[in-house]
Amino acid sequence: MKKAELAINFGRGIRCESEVLDLACKHGVIVEEGNNFFIDGYVVKNRKEAERYLAESDAVFYNIVKCLRCRLFEGQA
Question: Which positions make up the signal peptide (predicted)?
Fold first, then answer.
């Protein structure tokens, strides 16, 4: 049996910011130290604020997704 976990916001749908934040931390695109997240030269104080920052900053969000795609799928055709 496989298990999936996702976040859904009423009126908005599935939130991908949480998943992107997890993957970016895991692969070194975003640095996490304690409760702080270092995103594109900006310090965010906690996870909720980091997710909100990614949701409100389209350019930063898509740049992080682009970096993740390069790291995860590099060399695969």
Answer: none
Give the whole-angstrom CA distance, residue 60 versus residue 9: 21
* Measured distance CA(69)–CA(35) in Å, rounded: 25
Structure tokens belonging to residue 59: 């350019």
Residue-wise pLDDT tens digits, 7-63: 777 777 777 898 999 999 999 999 999 999 999 899 999 999 999 999 999 999 999
In one letter, which amino acid is 53?
Y
Q: Looking at the whole model, is its pTM more than 0.70?
A: yes
Q: Please, what's the b/e burial string for 15-53 (b: 16 or more CB within 10 A of its CB; e: otherwise)?
A: eebbebbebbbeeebbebeeeebebeeeebeebeebbeb
